[in-house]
Design brief:
Blueprint (H helix, E strand, L loop, with lengths): L1 E5 L6 H12 L2 E4 H11 L2 H12 L5 H11 L9 E4 L5 H13 L6 E6 L2 H15 L9 H15 L1 H8 L3 E5 L4 H12 L2
Parallel strand pairs: 1-3, 1-4, 2-3, 4-5
The structure holds adenosine-5'-diphosphate.
């Protein structure tokens, strides 16, 4: 099964993708985690991405598209995977469609975690104060607001993109973590 988890920063995508990975053996592929690993390891990709990520902008499409293209071909992905944080704009979604078509594959579903935008800003501010000085250079109020703006402008249009393809499923992301997991499992018939 090939899934995309879609939702703004603070919606709980990563938490839910991890739970689905644990419960159902799908591999969680978080481009954010992979890029942070590249930054920590000081690779060429990491050097390119570091500053862009710290301010909350998107790293270039070709960088993330090639990361995903390589990663999804590794043996542990054979049973399926959850894309968490990718695609983040229409160009990336088109590149993903092309990549899968070339492999004779397709997406099973795109799961949208719906969260009230008004709540997000306060969740984000709480997270920024809790994680200040922590491992993520982009968990400060300014970069988090930027990530939210980038989401609204570039990533939210994917809801329509996948809606038109009839593979979009939306779940209320405002409930408790357990309730959201249960809703996701029901929506995806897992
Ligand atoms: P969050 O969902 O909390 O905003 P992520 O861990 O998914 O955070 O991403 C952190 C940062 O990594 C993004 O702000 C961006 O700079 C970079 N990034 C992650 N995925 C992508 C992507 N698909 N395209 C471009 N940049 C990305």
């Amino acid at each position: 099964m090939k899934l995309i988890f879609l939702g703004p920063p603070g919606a709980g995508k990563g938490t839910q993708a991890q739970r689905i990975q644990e419960n159902h053996g799908l591999v969680q592929l978080s481009t954010g985690d992979m890029l942070r690993a590249a930054v920590a390891a000081g690779t060429e990709v990491g050097k390119k991405a570091e500053e862009i990520m710290a301010r909350g902008d998107l790293v270039p499409d070709d960088v993330v598209v090639s990361i995903i293209s390589e990663r999804t071909q590794q043996p542990d992905c054979a049973k399926g995977y959850i894309l968490d944080g990718f695609p983040r704009n229409v160009a990336q979604a088109q590149a993903l469609d092309k990549m899968l078509a070339e492999r004779g594959e397709s997406l099973d579903a795109v799961l949208e975690l719906k969260v009230d935008p008004k709540i997000l800003l306060s969740r984000i501010e709480t997270r920024a104060s809790e994680t200040a000085g922590g491992p993520r250079a982009d968990d400060n109020a300014e970069a988090l607001k930027k990530r939210l703006d980038v989401y609204m402008a570039q990533t939210a249009p994917l809801i329509e993109y996948y809606g038109k393809k009839d593979i979009l499923k939306s779940v209320d992301g405002m409930k408790s973590i357990d309730e959201v997991t249960a809703e996701i499992e029901a929506a995806l018939k897992l």
